[in-house]
Amino acid sequence: MTPSRLRLGLFAALVAGPALAQAPAPAQAPAVPGWAVGRPEGSTLAPHAPRLTVTPLDQVPVSQIRLPPGFRAEVYAHGMPGARMMAEGPNGTIFAGTRAIGRVYAVSRNPDGTTRTRIIAQGLAQPNGLVMIGTSLYVIAVNRVLRYDNIEANLDNVPAPVDLTAAFGLPTEQDHAGNHHWKFASLGPDGRIYTNVGVNCNVCQTDRDRFALLVSFNPDGSDRRIEARGIRNSVGMAHHPVTRELWATNNARDWAGNDWPQDTLHRIRRSGEDHGFPFCSAGAADPQHNNGRQCSEFVQPAALLGPHVASLGMRFYTGTMFPEQYRNQIFIARRGSWNRERLTGYDVVVAHLDPQGNVMRIEEFMTGLRDDANQRFHDRPVDVHVMRDGSLLVAGEQMGAIYRITYSR
Amino acid sequence: MAAALIAAATAPAARAQDAARGAELAAHRCVNCHGENGRSGMADIPSLAGQPAGYITVQMILFREGIRQVPAMLAFAEGVPDRDIEDIAAWFASLPPGPPEDRRPRDAALFAAGQAIAGPRNCGVCHLPGYSGREQMPRLAAQREEYLARAMREYRDGQRVGVDSQMNGAVFGLSDAELDALAHYLSQRD
């Protein structure tokens, strides 16, 4: 417990004292929820409501999307409330995880080019982490790890998954105290599963061997390895197609002002590097949790991605459909802010790298879903996926749609 | 200002909800327990009158999907289409909120104790200072006291989660006595 939390907790116990003399003061009670630590007096900012009902096709805001010249967006699939992180099977089925609604969707292509959507799993807690290894789909739902073998051949009659939960031994929702327990998952070039273990609070002194990590495992859950430490909550990662280095997006802490800290992009050159959270965020000292540490002792972020934008799913563009300038550059979905008075994000950006892997600039790519004049949004991009034909899928969580972006000269 | 910004930030509803249709649907499945006027007269059953439509919609979907498990709601939520849920939610949201007929008299000491917890716990930030709720966050004012106490125990004990885990954090570490005081305070607000 931090000193500030302790003081507030005592204050709450004292003011409640007279009527509750019989109730012992709880030892571990935070005065405010972990995610709200640092909230200024009077703020009414709160997470936006999700939409968990089906959005009809004519309400999917594809016509709002703006792209650079030559690019075009279409609706690839819709009617999937809460659709988030995507993985593709060898036969081209797109799987999409969710958070609150607890479903995993499968989108397959009909012979006429249209798509068909099925629910292949439901009732799971935050099944956000998907990874495809061969013909098996791995679903990570908080600490549960489920392997659906030969899934594409069984979309209409999904067999019971193999339960690998015990082997992975990830922290439970209770271990996280309900904070940042959902997963992103990615298959590394070494055949290992890479995932995040988010921090168990908004910002706090935490067990840095257990939370705010990137970790990897053998696909059977053995040989856990810490890939990066001090990364608050990464919900997007991928390996560079040439250098094989791991890159990851990170969601920075809340309630430290409208413009600080920015979300970040991280380059992990060696397993086990320390990226500094909670002592430092976005390369600068945390106002409450720095503990006298020098930020220069930690790996600096590869790029700043904007304050409170919620940078999530990212992929390197490995296709050939888009112009050459996009080859091996990073597409990043920015879900959009809630912890900021004016909206930021709600778009897809590209991080352009130089040949040494330094980020040269962050460029807007898919915009139009954020309405600045009216301070509203049309959808929330949460993940990107490069299809084999080089088109780019973008998952829109708020409207439960997947958009497909193509390019033609 | 910020509240207005947030209220405006949500993407538009995909279709106009039909509260009249919702009333028809609710007459056959909801009002026996939740009350003809949406104010529950049954212990442990929450009032839904004046609840934000977004809250009712989200909770019904969590029931339907098996994420929130309440045995009494199973039969009523199973397989209910989105449209029915949205219309039922629109109808309950349109009803004037108010206390149940059997609300007990105010206990001044308990009320004060609850009030003293609600401030530091920031209840009014999300549920708004009058506890009227907004979007996915429910109205608490004049809700049935024993329902509020039970709901908060379930959040505290990890037996219930919402669309996010904000409530689990908000009541973390509170004793039964503190939750009872909070429930009394909120149930007495109008």
UniProtKB/TrEMBL annotation, chain A:
A Pfam family reported for this protein in Swiss-Prot or TrEMBL: GSDH
InterPro entries, per the entry: 6-blade_b-propeller_TolB-like, Glc/Sorbosone_DH, Quinoprot_gluc/sorb_DH_b-prop
UniProt feature coiled coil, ranges: none
Domain Glucose/Sorbosone dehydrogenase span(s) in chain numbering: 220-403
Signal sequence region: 1-21
Record's keyword terms, sorted: Signal
Protein name (record): PQQ-dependent sugar dehydrogenase
